[in-house]
Amino acid sequence: MGTWGTGSFENDSALDWAAEVASIDDIDGKFNELDSFGQTDDCGPDAYIEVDLASEILAAAECVAFLMGRQAADVPDDLRNRLGTMAKPDTPLINKAKDSVSRILAGSELLDLWSEEDSETNEWNIAISGLIDRLNADVPCNPPPLEQIESSQGYLTPCAFCDQPIAEGEIFQLEFRDLSNADGLFVSRGLYCHLACLNGKLHSKHMVQNWKFNIAQAEIDRILGRKED
């Protein structure tokens, strides 16, 4: 794989691509390349994405996160300098980055390789969870007050996986039901957790992608075909 770590730039393919990045158009072009990959005569939308292209896509997504103000620790210094001269990404580019990462996680050679290589620790899952979080950075959110969570779901316990406290705005709940018995349909138990901890325990093909989008009402109306008043 030419890989020595789970970070988006800890592989030869990503570093070779990053060395050629000179403008935001280069970043956008990598996502467009993935779109074109699914439109050629011999590659449909479900085409298998090879490891080199998938690695470059994740590196491009990290560049978008960097331009949003959320920097991964493994961004090469020379790339940091070049990115520092570029403008902030617009919403379409951010959404392209999100969609492209999702395509990698939906099915790719990179996903399959990490499913085999990292089956014991799932550190790649945790790294990808971090990338998703960085790409969500500029999306407004409205976390419920702790009191509201506890009144609805019960006392907030530490993370079920790492047993450490969970900060407001980082609270997730995993619901458990015993479906081996019909009575289990009506009884559930909620386990609080960090999303990265949960993904660290899941098979790579089943990790949770917690994407957040901030779509303007005008765009929602356009998608739904609503006419303006």
Query: How far apart are the first and last residues' alpha carbons, in Å?
Result: 56 Å
Count of structural domains: 2
Low-confidence stretches: none
Total number of strands: 2
Percent range for β-strand residues: under 5%
Structural shape: globular
DSSP helix fraction: 40-55%
Write out the strand line-up for the largest beta sheet, numbering strands in chain order.
1-2
The Rg value, from CA coordinates, equals 20 Å
Structural class: mainly alpha
Number of separate helices: 10
H/E element sequence: HHHHHHHHEEHH
- Strand count, sense and closure of the main sheet? 2 strands, antiparallel
The pLDDT mean sits at 87
Pfam family, one: DUF4259
Protein name: DUF4259 domain-containing protein
